[in-house]
From TrEMBL:
Molecular function GO labels: hydrolase activity
Domain SGNH hydrolase-type esterase residue range list: 73-252
Alphabetized UniProt keyword annotations: Hydrolase, Membrane, Transmembrane, Transmembrane helix
Coiled coil: none
Pfam families (alphabetical): Lipase_GDSL_2
Protein name: SGNH/GDSL hydrolase family protein
Transmembrane segments: 13-36
InterPro entries assigned to the protein according to its UniProt record, in alphabetical order: Ester_Hydrolysis_Enzymes, SGNH_hydro, SGNH_hydro_sf
Region described as Disordered: 333-370
Length: 370
């Protein structure tokens, strides 16, 4: 079964009840599960102990004029900032400072993220967030890693995330969700756990993306954003526990999230919704396809879209896939027999991802994925 189909199945189970297995463990059997338990114990010894807490980053950022932008952060230790040494080094603080700079207004940050939180804890966090800020302008949610490591039923995790997004949207907030990071990118995790963790992480991230877009939010792929940097400079990108990002690592994640948060707040004008560029693998199509492509390219945003004035097609909700952090385009090779430059956009690598031949994008769809 391809990842797009699994993402749809998980999202449907989340919407209508029922389960699809605990983080994908059902396909492994008792023997595989026993092996994972041993590997998990080894990993905890390698990674080391967690920090005692995270810096309190709540407060006002920026000195602009006008009413403050009200930003709330929800989620797990990544949202809380475990591994940061100073309140200004967290993802929430970095995003708040960026929004203040782009908007020319101060930003009031309220952080209700909890270290160790799973998606099932988001309901309580939304309660606390809305008690503190009745009408937030934007909410940033970072969740998923503990759902994988604690073996939470994926459809249950996705259902709680979708409900949190709906409640925040109902309170008038724009919602940006940083989906599950790729736990297979962590070098201290031994094989075969790393390979399985990568599959579970990406499956959960794809399902989260489908559910977030269905609920009216924007999903941003965190993926293996730190993997190459971790391999090159682990002492720089990761904190002393070798699991949570360092302040430099948090800045890298915040840089991927900030453009989507600013776009959600309409700070970029017409660039809030740029025309998809097929040469970069961007486009409009079924949300499950967009979700599958996003998990293989960190920093990708998937957001609700319409085709011909319709929000849904035969394969579900329409979505736009954007790479808001846009590197320079490489020279495109000429297609055989074309006599001109051309080519399709980037696709998931067959060495690291599964073929998605179970989904087709209707021919002629405006901006359809390359």
């Amino acid at each position: 079964m391809g990842r797009a189909r699994r993402a749809r199945r998980i999202a449907q189970a989340a919407a209508y009840g029922g389960g699809v297995g605990v983080a994908g463990l059902g396909v492994l059997g008792a023997l595989g599960y026993g092996l994972l338990r041993v590997e998990a114990v080894m990993t905890r010894r390698i990674v080391g102990q967690h920090f005692e807490g995270a810096p309190d980053d709540a407060g006002r950022y920026g000195t602009g004029h006008g009413q403050p932008v009200r930003l709330v952060v929800l989620g797990d230790s990544t949202g809380a900032g475990m591994g940061a040494d100073h309140p200004h080094e967290t993802i929430g603080a970095t995003v708040a400072s960026g929004v203040a700079a782009f908007s020319g207004r101060p930003v009031e940050l309220t952080n209700v993220a909890v270290i160790g939180a799973e998606s099932t804890a988001l309901g309580e966090q939304v309660d606390r967030a809305l008690d503190a800020v009745t009408e937030p302008d934007v909410a940033l949610v970072l969740i998923g890693a503990n759902d994988v490591t604690h073996r939470i039923d994926t459809s249950v995790a996705v259902r709680h995330l979708a409900e949190a997004v709906r409640r925040l949207r109902g309170a008038g907030a724009e919602v940006v969700v940083g989906t599950c990071p790729d736990l297979g990118a962590l070098e201290p995790v031994p094989q075969p756990l790393r390979l399985l963790a990568r599959r579970w992480s990406r499956d959960l991230a794809a399902a989260q993306t489908v559910a977030v877009v269905e609920a009216g939010g924007r999903a941003v792929s965190i993926g293996d954003l730190l993997s190459e940097a971790f391999a090159a400079e682990p002492h720089v990108m990761f904190s002393k526990d070798r699991f949570h990002p360092s302040p430099v690592g948090y800045a890298r994640v915040a840089a991927a999230l900030l453009p989507s948060v600013c776009a959600a707040l309409h700070l970029f004008g017409e660039l809030d919704s740029p025309a998809p560029d097929r040469r970069r693998g961007e486009g409009v199509g079924p949300v499950a396809v967009a979700a599958t492509m996003a998990v293989t390219r960190p920093g990708s945003e998937v957001a609700p879209a319409e085709v011909g004035g319709q929000a849904r097609g035969a394969q579900g909700r329409w979505a736009v896939l954007l790479h808001r952090i846009r590197p320079a385009l490489p020279a495109l090779p000429a297609l055989p027999g074309s006599g001109a430059s051309g080519g399709s956009g980037p696709r998931p690598s067959p060495a690291t991802d599964e073929a998605e031949d179970d989904v087709t994008t209707p021919a002629g769809t405006p901006g359809a994925y390359a």
